[in-house]
Amino acid sequence: MTTPDTPSPTPEEAIRPLLLMAEDEEDTASLLQFLLERAGYVVLHARDGMEAQGLVDTHDHLDLILLDINLPFINGLDVLTHIRRKPGWERVPVIMLTADGSEQDVRQALRAGANDYILKPFNPRELTVRLDRFRKYLV
Description:
Distance between the termini: 17 Å
Keywords: DNA-binding, Phosphoprotein, Transcription, Transcription regulation, Two-component regulatory system
CATH class: Alpha Beta
Number of domains: 1
Largest sheet: 5 strands, parallel
Order of helices and strands: HEHEHEHEHEH
Radius of gyration: 14 Å
Shape: globular
CATH superfamily: Response regulator
Organism: Nitrospira tepida
Helix content: 40-55%
Strand content: 15-25%
GO biological process, one term: regulation of DNA-templated transcription
Low-confidence stretches: none
Pfam families: Response_reg
Mean pLDDT: 89
Number of strands: 5
GO molecular function: phosphorelay response regulator activity; transcription cis-regulatory region binding
């Protein structure tokens, strides 16, 4: 589903997985966007939790979601909870990508429904390998 603000995908984009990236740090977001597009994803970039939640609510589906925990307005864990409560979205892979690496943060994210947890700074090759683990399940 597209909205007036969301352009229709091109034929090439229609066959590429759609990934939501919620990242407020512009340098990190630029690097991630480059890596993800090079890996074959169509990337939607949310700069805060409110924008991420809005993108989830205005799309019929997303193939993969990459969330930072420390997002402005609504934190990544609350966005994750929102995603998991949305009917039909229980199986969408959500990967937390964050600098918060305490055992409590990891446990909290996994309990809330995160499928994986990657710490910043991240290794680009490791990130793409982890994403590829979920990509093989995308239809």
